[in-house]
Amino acid sequence: MFQRSLLTAGLLITAVSNVHALPYGFFDARSVAMGNVSMATGGVTTAALSNPGMLMVNEYDDSYALLLPAIGAQVIDDGNVVEQLDEFQSLLGSTNPADLLRQQEILIGIEDDSVIAAVIPNAAFVSSGENFTWGITYRANAVVSATVVDLVDVNPIGPSPDGTLKALGVTIQEVGIPMGTALSISGIQLSLGVTPRYVQVDVKEYSSPLSVANIDDVKNTPSEDLGAFTTFDAGVTLNLIDTFRVGLVAKNLVEETKTTSVGRKVNFKTHLRAGAALDLGVVTLAADMDLTERDPIAGENPSKSFSVGAEIDAFSTVQLRAGYQTNLANGATDPDLLSVGAGIWLGFNLDIAMVVGENSSYGAFIQSGFHF
Fold it and tell me: InterPro entries attached here (predicted)?
């Protein structure tokens, strides 16, 4: 059936990604559990992947930190598309007028809706010094965006109502070298960081009538190598008082556009995100917001994320976290997402996070980390 054979399992495992319409990237389990906040709070490995301006903040006073492994998965189903397409395929071949009317209803209801599925593995190593911090990161995105278009035999209803499933994936793998330093201005700490990144891009494009969409066809679709490019990020944090800081990052300061063999453009545009955090020791409160809207490259919604999160820390041994994020982009219909998670010290850090939203939207993240 469509739900399990094509999207929920197959595309997650065998296809590739579109990161541009997902909320601001999943970097580690702590930030995911706190609604995806990372601009002004988090450890040095989070900073290495998200905002290099946080590298010198070093909330946990680590000399060295290793994030390995960290992996997450997320599905955003705008309009409950997966479940309805599963039902549509189950009705194929029926001549019952009620079944034909139900197929028509399903297709009209999900036309132009989209499903986004993602797998995100990360790894990071950071060496912290008194005046300079550096590291190395590996980050990958395996995400697919699938949209229903081009309905036939629907209005008026015919004997074989159908539509087209178009899926686009962009596999993005990158290696970064985050670096940061800090200076004091009138007693206020200003931390600065940059991350040069080498980025490799591959795509898959899949198009099929809904009635015959099949996982084997997805697996057998060849990938297209769009080549590599280099860019860099820059970030800054400002500690206004001991317990309150603000952060800002600019991603992809060197913009790039890749074009597929069928003429579809994959854009890596400069993106700005800001955040603030109040750290009271036992309790941390934080909020992040995209300052620029990220355009879709397939049929999904644009993205402009706003996130809030909280953490309760019990004796630096157990942490409980919760968060909320919403898409503020014009015309976006993505469901709001709620998240929860926990961290525990077992001689190493073990962190987990879960994300849920309406219309079969969900996600999870797990990681282990070492600090010394």
Answer: Put_conjugal_transfer
